[in-house]
Amino acid sequence: MNNINSFVSGEELLLQERYKNDIRKKIQGRGYKAFVFTLGCQQNEADSERIRGMLKEVGYTITEKEEEADFLLVNTCAIREHAERRALSIIGRFKHYKAKNPDIVIGVCGCMTAQQHRSEQIKHSYHYVDFAFGTSLLYRLPEFINSALEKGKRRFLLDSEKPQIAEGLKIARESSYKAWVSIMYGCNNFCTYCIVPYVRGRERSRNMCDILAEVRDLAGRGYRDITLLGQNVNSYGKDLEGKPTIADLLNEISKIDGDFMIHLMTSHPKDASSEMIDALANNTHATKHFHLPLQSGSDKILKSMNRHYDKARYLSIVDELKSKIKDVTFTTDIIVGFPGETEEDFEETLDIIKRVRFDSIFSFIYSPRKGTPAYDMEQVPEEVKHARYDRLCEIQNEIANEINQTYVGKTIRVLVDGKSKNNENVYTSRTEGNKIVHFESDLDDTGTFINVKITRADTFALYGEKI
Questions:
Q1: pLDDT over 70 (residue 183)
Q2: What percent of the chain lies above the pLDDT cut of 90?
């Protein structure tokens, strides 16, 4: 079923095992600690769990205190210029650790370092950094650490032209009940505002048998919330022999025993098929929440964004989801002030917001991203973008509040996420529609399903009493 060219060879993985053994010998009995700082999306979080897994495998103890670490690594994001500036700031503060202890190993990885100009910048301006590598070379981390421990040559590698998937890497999961499961990597869409295809490469799907084995293992260990990750999960399997689809994968997951929820992150409207919607509707594990990025309600702007769908197509997907999945909730992404956006274009976006009535929106003011086609397009004035953003938020907040008020008086099943940061007697949870629910309790039910009766609601959350 696989495309053999998309997977790291067994010989290469065996080589990395030898580097792991070398590291174990070098740090054995020294009590070395490692600190990993993660920026960016859920995929970066999933990558960092693999990084921590490999570090623990060779003998490091993971610490949350960077000042006590013997190994420091920043997993970077490149989605916006601000994310890169923050990463460089964090890397900059690591300088004094190296000055105090030259034996400390410092590395940088992720989307930012997949760009040649950033890799060169780190190499020449941050002389205390031992190595940097792109997103697809994660499996070679033992090799890079071993080289640094031997005081070898500093290493700065970009992604290969044909990035591959490495199966079997150890994972140190952050949670005992919530898990990320990457089902594919990379992106083929080339939206004109997005840097992702340039830093994560083309789409590569994992074999279905490997995904199912991972989900089955998680379910067997009591995990309750499993998110299937990909830049566009709807296009899963197009590069594999036999071309299995996301619908095929969901149908197989539905056969796995256990009390757990499945989320998709993220879906692209152009590949949202009826077969996928049917698979979600018929899957008892699938949540009643669907995140479907809109970005703009204007056909002209969608074409300029290279999104490959129009307003009518988007609304037809929403209608089909509503007709097939009872009480489905919708969230979306909106970019305000994309180059060339007129007042009429923006009103088209507001029209879809009013018609769909999203439960929540992740809205962003367009920020020019060097290296993307939109960077060279005619920009909308900043004051106009901010004014439109405020109008969008005002309308959406009113809609969200109206929707949430309909939950008052209902009893809902929720998965408890843990204590509130502001009140130790208040717990935060989420419904299968991904709505936040706060409630008071003397017992810690984190990681379990309970029932809560909703007593009040506001724009951003529901509040209730534990049943």
A1: yes
A2: 94
DSSP bridge partners of 457 = 462
CA distances for 284 relative to 252, 277, 298, 409, angstroms: 12, 13, 35, 25
Q: Give CA–CA dist 87/43, Å, rounded.
A: 17
Q: For residue 282, which of 251, 252, 256 has the smallest C-alpha distance?
A: 251
**Bridge partners, residue 365, by sequence:** 336
DSSP codes, 274-303: HHHHHHHHT-TTB-SEEE---B-S-HHHHH
Rounded to whole angstroms, how far apart are CA atoms 8 and 320? 39
Please name which of 132, 77, 86, 80 lies closest in space to residue 105, comparing C-alpha atoms.
132
Q: What does the pLDDT look like over 339-372, one tens digit per residue?
A: 999 999 999 999 999 999 999 999 999 999 988 9
**Which pTM value belongs to this model?**
0.94
Q: Is the pLDDT assigned to residue 175 strictly greater than 80?
A: yes
**For the residues 312-329, what does the mean pLDDT come to?**
97
CA proximity to 295, closest of 283, 304, 287: 304
Domains of the chain: 4-157 (3.40.50.12160), 178-404 (3.80.30.20), 411-466 (2.40.50.140)
Is 445 within 8 Å of 430 (Cβ atoms)? no
Report the length, in residues, of the chain: 467
